[in-house]
Amino acid sequence: MPTDPADPLQKGRIVEIRLDEGLQRGSSPEIEHERKVAIADILEDNSFTLEHAPARSYRLSLSIRDKRLVIDIRCDANEPLGDHVLPLSAFSRLIKDYFIVCESYFEAIRTMPPARIEALDNERRRLHDEGSTKLIERLRGGIQVDFDTARRLFTLICVLHWRGE
């Protein structure tokens, strides 16, 4: 269901999210699926506010520049509200481990017994939760998000990081 930025109930929410199209490296079907699902889930349900500013609806563009995540934040009228920049060095080990586990998981669902698949899925979720918690901490002082929004944003950071490597 598309969001309507003019709807007063959309305040404190992301109503549009884009990833840097300049990162044109191909990605696996699994990664593309994760990207599409994360974006759809964010648009369906999220909580995003700039600290020390009135809640409004936001349009985000995510990119990686010089090993930093750049979140270009705009209001619903597409006027710039500023960039929020996070060094990715704090996430690099976690992202690498997450992708290793994800690759193992995607391979396991084709060939491994259910117990092995479940173990890999649990590890994948643990790493995802760790990344989400770290993202909330790193955004603190500028942006507030709930845990579910942080999980979906962490997925998109992983997709961007993979494409930008």
Keywords:
165 residues, alpha+beta, four-stranded mixed beta sheet, 4 helices, 6 strands, elongated
Give a description of the structure:
This protein has 165 residues and is an alpha+beta fold. The chain has one domain. The strands form two sheets. It has a four-stranded mixed β-sheet. Helix 1 packs antiparallel against helix 4, helix 2 packs antiparallel against helix 3 and helix 3 packs across helix 4. It is elongated and about 50 Å long. The protein starts with 12 loop residues before the first strand and ends with a helix. The mean pLDDT is 88.
Global shape: elongated
Quickly count the helices: 4
Distance between the termini: 33 Å
Q: Could you say which structural class the secondary elements and strand pairing correspond to?
A: alpha+beta
Number of domains: 1
Main β-sheet, in a few words?
Answer: 4 strands, mixed
Beta-strand segment tally = 6
- Averaged pLDDT: 88
Strand order of the largest sheet: 1-3-4-5
Q: Give the low-confidence spans.
A: none
- State the helical fraction: 40-55%
Q: What share of the residues does DSSP label as strand, in percent?
A: 15-25%
What's the quaternary structure here? single chain
Question: What integer value in Å does the Rg equal?
Answer: 16 Å
One letter per element, helices H and strands E, the order comes to EHEEEEHHEH
What's the helix and strand layout?
Blueprint: E1 13-19, H1 29-44, E2 48-50, E3 57-65, E4 68-75, E5 80-87, H2 92-111, H3 114-139, E6 143-145, H4 147-164
Parallel strand pairs: 1-3
Antiparallel strand pairs: 2-6, 3-4, 4-5
Helix pairs in contact: 1-4, 2-3, 3-4
